[in-house]
Amino acid sequence: MDFETIAAISTAMGEGAIGIVRLSGDEAIKIADSVYRSPKGKSLADVKSHTIHYGHMVDPATNQMVDEVMVSVMKGPNTFTREDTVEINCHGGLVSVNKVLQLVLNQGAKLAEPGEFTKRAFLNGRIDLSQAEAVMDLIRAKTDKAMNMALGQVEGKLSKLIRALRQEILETLAQVEVNIDYPEYDDVEEMTHRLFKERCEHVKAEIERLLQTSHQGKILREGISTVIIGRPNVGKSSLLNSLVQENKAIVTDIPGTTRDVIEEYVNVRGVPLRLVDTAGIRETEDIVERIGVERSREVLKKADLILLVLNNADDFTEEDVRLFDAVKGMDVIVLINKTDLPRKLDIDKVKDRAGNYPIIMTSLKEEVGVDQLEEAISSLFFEGNLQMGDATYVSNSRHIALLNQAKKAIEDALEGIEAGVPIDLVQIDLTKSWEMLGEIIGDSVHESLIDQLFSQFCLGK
Ligand code: GDP
Ligand code: ZN
User: Which GO terms describe its molecular function (predicted)?
Assistant: First the structure.
């Protein structure tokens, strides 16, 4: 493919001593060479691929030296983008990195858009769409576990599964086609129907299995939305502070927060918690007072996890009961705080209300019980079916939507079969499902269905 040569600073902005300007495209080497001066006068156009060269960046207009650099030259297609790629390692800090970028832009490179290098890797066939999206996720991954999940997708786990499913659909379509073309046996129709049904049911089950992982996938990627509730003075702020202090805060301040709800990320034993409305807890102590009843109901409704705090040294009040009612049916962990003070709370009443919610005794003042709380959080989300490792997780909302559509089309096909609809009509639904799955990996050109069908026929006969 033929693209303009793009350039961008590919290291994080800020402190780093070394900054890298990366170029990709047909002209990458030529452009870099026009601003590069080697001590011995060699040209980057003559060097071997995948080698690194010392020299200086010089502005050809003024002959002024801009920075001392190391330049890596990598020729396509053995590069991430599959295009010729040059990386200029600058030493002079942020200012000179920017100057070098400006130099190559002056020489005809185009400033890359965010994600454009990855996009090219996709367009040049180096990675498929789901892998490209996974690279984006990788950049944004908030915890190690989310990172592993993204890595799994980069390696193409999801793609591999999707490809296998599509192949199965394709073979079914091809087989049905053969049966229609060669109806020399009496029972061909019945055979076709049976085969069709079996295969469809299998594909449907596999899609459902993938979809089941999507909830956990989303949670890992976006964090478990967690809300701390409780009457004034029970210890909500103390709980928030101890969670933030004991665990690495992933994002301490979200810049430019003008929204009503402020969030804070912490990593609790690999579980990314998104603590919602921390401002409400810190500032006015009362989420309802600060953002209003309606708004706080919304916040509660969207929460994945509720930490409901009670006061060990106080009665179990009507207000506490109302809090339990407000979060009915959700994932709740009950904390009985201030266990260092004499008990006034009726524990039996609490147990009655709590049902099967875990109850954790804490004294946040004396730093007791936080470990048990963390244990409860992690087992709530990692016990049972959620095991990291080999499993493939679907976390991207576009993928989830497409999987749902593919599943719907398969269900339509199955219904058609049951209702005795002619097989070539049922095929349309199956083809649709094949296309939806293909969109996940960015490979759904209709012609390729025809091509593949064609090649299968040739093989088959
Ligand atoms: P909030 O109003 O629910 O946010 O409660 P705070 O976290 O602001 O705590 C209210 C008061 O209770 C503060 O003076 C805390 O120091 C105190 N406190 C919090 N946890 C404990 C605890 O476990 N034991 C005791 N004795 N005091 C606590
Ligand atoms: Zn408070």
Answer: GTP binding; GTPase activity; identical protein binding; metal ion binding
